[in-house]
Amino acid sequence: MNDHERFGKLVEIMDQLREPGGCPWDREQDWTSLRSYLLEECHEALEALDAGNLADLREELGDLLLQIVFLSRLAQEEGAFTARDVVRGIVEKMIRRHPHVFAEESAEDADEVLRNWERIKKAEKAARGDHRSSVLDGLPQGLPSLLRALRLGEKASRVGFDWNEPADVLEKIREELEELRASVRAGDRNGTREEIGDLLFATAMLARKLDHDPESALEAANRKFTRRFKTLERRARESGQTVETLDPERLEELWNEVKAAER
After folding, report:
1. Is residue 256 predicted with pLDDT exceeding 90?
2. How many CB atoms lie within 10 A of CB 146?
3. Among 95, 185, 230, 233, which residue's CB has the most CB atoms within a 10 Å radius?
4. Assigned superfamily of 132-212
């Protein structure tokens, strides 16, 4: 069985599960119930990716593919499209948006590839009657805020609205930090909230200029903090205490000990 036949077999399995006499659970699912499973499978795939566990990633990608086939089956039942239409559409899109590979155009670097991608994408949408008024349009509203900031910066940079060097963004971060300090000193709660947002946005732009994903960087920081704090809790218990009973000075000492031990 080749790869085309295996994909067809997956579609056939889903068809059998949804048809009369199939699986009662699968037959009960609808657009609403599958939304949560799609979100869950995405997060599980990301978790395996972040952990560098390729065996788990392989399994989670399979689960994610199943959700795509499942949702496509629901669409087929409503006469909208099929799983094969989904595959056909992405194949045609990839060929169409890579004219430097599959046609006669050229692209000297990744930046030019992205500019061409946006140009072709805009032309495709215009042909469908979707005339967007801004280069920033088209981002899903549900994106996590740091990832949304990254994508906004990428879109703006493709039309030349960008800093030249990472050092320029660092200067912007220093500027935003000073504005935040001024708001804190003034007791301006609304201003403080705004300046925190500006600082986070500028930090996301620095990550972009340094070719880092700010969402992944923050998640790594979250994992590091969790690991260190749990170690701090364990050390407190080993001394017959808890973090709730330790004074701030001792908590800071334990925290520094945990950091030093990791290094």
Report:
1. yes
2. 20
3. 233
4. MazG-like (1.10.287.1080)
**Distance in angstroms (rounded) separating the CA atoms of residues 98 and 95:** 5
Name the phi and psi angles at 130, rounded to 5: -100, 90
The alpha carbon of 78 is separated from its chain's Cα centroid by a whole number of angstroms, namely 30
CA distance 39 to 242: 37
Q: Rounded to an integer, what is the distance from CA 213 to the centroid of its chain?
A: 9
* Of 61-65, 88-92, 128-132, minimum mean pLDDT range: 128-132
Q: How far is CA 192 from CA 46, 79, 187, in A?
A: 33, 52, 8
Domain-by-domain residue ranges, the chain? 3-96, 132-212, 216-262
More confident residue, 45 or 129: 45
Burial degree of 232 (CB within 10 A; 0-12, 13-18, 19+):
buried
Please give the CATH number for the structural domain made up of 3-96. 1.10.287.1080
Burial 23-54 (b: 16+ CB within 10 A, else e): eeeeeebeeeeeeebeeebeebbeebeeeeee
Confidence of residue 247 (pLDDT cuts 50, 70, 90): very high
For tokens 């972009």, the residue is 208
- Tell me if domain 3-96 and domain 132-212 are identical in fold: yes
